[in-house]
Amino acid sequence: MTSKTKPTVSAAIDADNDITSPLDFSYKCLAGIQDAMEEEPRAGPHKFIRVEKYDEAGNVKVKYKANSLRFCYNAISDLQSFCSTLEHFLEDPSDLGWLDLSFNDISTIDEVILQYPNIKILYLHSNDIKKLSEIDKLAALPELRKITLHGNPIEDLQGYRQYVISTLPRLKTLDFVAVTNQDRSDAMTWRELKSKKK
């Protein structure tokens, strides 16, 4: 007799399944990403797999097996030294899948993020992004499925939601709200009407 197995969780939420607990640098008063290199990740309920490596001088360097980072609630305004900071902490920075930069002072989306094509979840809410055209850069992230942008000045611009959805058509959630097929259709219609008016 064969036993039937229950179906697995739908592919619509699979993006979360391979995301590890984040290395947490929230509430550290960081003025820049590079300042995290002077800090230890915030202790939390999760244990991280630490990997000890040795440099040429024989000094121990601790790295973490993680693919998510939390830099929320700081005073970060740009992503200068982002790559070197990831290299400092992560055993494999190219695996970065979730990045939380919410509640900072970011006004532009730095293209350095595009060097991490496995990013699936990006939190940018409660920053200072004023131009919808900044979202265009993120279209180059092939795996991006969830993004938050609410609490930025762009949220108050006419057509904000339609612009983001039409620019990032693979999104499954925007500002913690599911993106439906109807949303995608409405966003494309909106974009077509906007382009005809130009």
TrEMBL record:
InterPro entries: Leu-rich_rpt (IPR001611), LRR_dom_sf (IPR032675)
TM ranges: none
Gene3D superfamilies in the cross-refs: Ribonuclease Inhibitor
Keywords, comma-separated and alphabetical: Cytoplasm, Leucine-rich repeat, Repeat
Keyword Cytoplasm: yes
Keyword set includes Cytoplasm: yes
Localization per record: Cytoplasm
Protein name, per record: Leucine-rich repeat-containing protein 51
Taxonomic lineage of the native organism: Eukaryota, Metazoa, Cnidaria, Anthozoa, Hexacorallia
